[in-house]
Design brief:
single chain; 421 residues; alpha/beta; Molybdenum Cofactor Biosythetic Enzyme, Chain A; Molybdopterin biosynthesis moea protein, domain 2; Molybdopterin biosynthesis moeA protein, domain 3; 4 domains; six-stranded mixed beta sheet; 8 helices; 28 strands; elongated
Length: 421
Amino acid sequence: MDSQKIKCSDESFISDDVRMRGFKQRSTVEQLTHWLDQQSIDLAEESIPIQDAYGRVLAQDIVSDINIPSFARSMMDGYALIASNTQGASSYNQLQLQIIGKSMPGHGTHVKVTPGTAVKIMTGAPVPEGANAILPAENVDMEEPFILVMESVAEGRNIGRIGEDISLDSIILKQGRSLRPQDIAMLASIGKKDVVVRRRLKVSIVVTGNEILPVGNKPQQYQITNSNGPMLEALSLRDNATVISSTIVADDPEQIEQAMLDDYDILLITGGTSVGEEDLVPLLVAKLGELVFHGVTMRPSRSTGIGVVDKKLVFLLPGNPVACLCAYDFFAGRFIRQRSAKPRNWPYYSVQKKLKQKISSHLGRTDYARVRLTKDNTVEPIAISGAAILSSTTEADGFIIVQANSEGYAAGTDVDVFLYD
């Protein structure tokens, strides 16, 4: 990848200025994703309460220091008895057993089951000494203080064995696992109060542009309201990162430089990344560190870039909202998801549908086409260009990726659709 890198001396900082001249060459999507997949980042460990651990990534194996259950327990409401005492029982041959006690969850009983006797027992209650099976309540008739057994039961039936769920010294959750709700239940069941997880990635978001208004302001005259910032915050949270700041800066080199030197793991900077006169971001990344990529063979998001400043990743995302969303999901999101033990490719459910009308593309270019599901169970394209038309994503049900080795898809082609919902 060395040929993709732009050196950072003052001389090359000026010579690599692509403003108002366009890209001499652009990298492929595959080149960017391959490079990203080789990058690593050290995340410190921290101990947090298990109630806060959903979605967090385990920093070490979890080994159980107890058996679950720690006692033989009943798996249903019924009667604890000796299995051989039920052999030959049927509705026509009812066998009589005397009830000598009751075992309840959390209490149990000190009564010992002997031949000809039974103990009433509830689900989860300890199996009394001497019993080796649980007969379901629906398989008996009552004649207090006796039961009339109407069905036989095998030895060991309906009894939860010691360690059946979790055994002592077993690894129940492995390092690197992204914790699910049922994992939290597992931790609680073995008495864990806290758990050691990896620190979340710290993401800083910077939106550049003299024309950008803060969230909550209506656009006036030639200004636009910040929409990329809130969108990137939501995307980062979805992918399990922590957003430590989200700011707007003017097209001013000093302000942009200061933002690049702040404390973060990953910087998402949107706007000022293309080839316009005020697109200063690529030059400043090259000045402060290393501009590894700038310009990608994809539509939209061709002005996407990736750099390194002070050993930290900087993602240069286009200012147009659709292109910003696309570039985040392809590159920044991929990196964040991978470091958060999530599937790195797409956080979207995919279905296969027939294309209602053709989609045209160019060989060598990857296209991100927004589509709508139709009533006849096909999909139709809404937009393949229009990087500034945010409504093309809100009106769409999902998107299709046209790979760089394709000139598009003909009507009737089965395509993979990634659904936003």
